[in-house]
Fold this sequence. Notes:
The chain is mainly alpha-helical.
Amino acid sequence: MMSRRATIVIRSLTGNTPVTGAMRITSSFGLVGRDATSFGTCNASTMTLGENSKEQKDQKKETVGGGGGGGSKGKEVASYWGVPSSRVTKEDGTEWKWNCFRPWEAYQADLSIDLKKHHVPKTFLDKFAYWTVKSLRLPTDIFFQRRYGCRAMMLETVAAVPGMVGGMLLHCKSLRRFEPSGGWIKALLEEAENERMHLMTFMEVAKPKWYERALVFAVQGIFFNAYFVAYLASPKLAHRITGYLEEEAIHSYNEFLKELDNGNIENVKAPAIAIDYWRLPPDSTLRDVVMVVRADEAHHRDVNHFASDIHYQGLELKDSPAPIGYH
């Protein structure tokens, strides 16, 4: 059998200093083993792709035929297709507990961004987008009032939709026209993923009641389809709506911070998932989480207003490089 050996040097996740360790993966028509050293930073990790021969034999005993359903609870799902289950560990050897994101997807939020920037609506489409978003805020204020944890949960279930819809439609457009997207597919899907991680965080803080979950179903269903149609009809309108939605999100998190500072909401310890995702200090609190989430929303505001401006200038998104990694 032919085999190949590759050595991959991974950079530190906390800066530009190269990590001293290296991960070696040996492949023989598949991934069968590893020779990995420990990495020197707190966020570094090693991924095991494949198992040793004994573990592979154990897996085969639990093989699921035909690539079908799962095995017993607590056991690993195996298949003759040979797709290995990835394992990620921290530098101290402990297991990386999150499957929704990996260490190399973590980052430190830029809190220096201008939170007061506002796009003044001038054209008819801008005014339509602005007042549409303002009208959506009224029922939210009535329903949630000062329950900002649950408000944030609802906000993020909606905020994660535009990036996914825009990325999906740009993806299909790229396929139809046989042309690149300028990185905008990745940028918009990255935005959607970031918003989803906001939701995963606030789910640890606010435990939604059954009727709030039902409301999420209804609002998301209506908003997804409405935004889908709006993006098909006018991408510049759709991105402007998202830009104003993010401005409202910043306002909501400002109010959230006021309630925390006034002692009306308990400033509890930050959820573990937030500490790992934003690389926060171990002693971080809910207030720290709201600060980084608010900064993310400000970045999404800028990206979407920028995307709308591109369309207003008679260009397409692919004509301007996408701000990939700009959370």
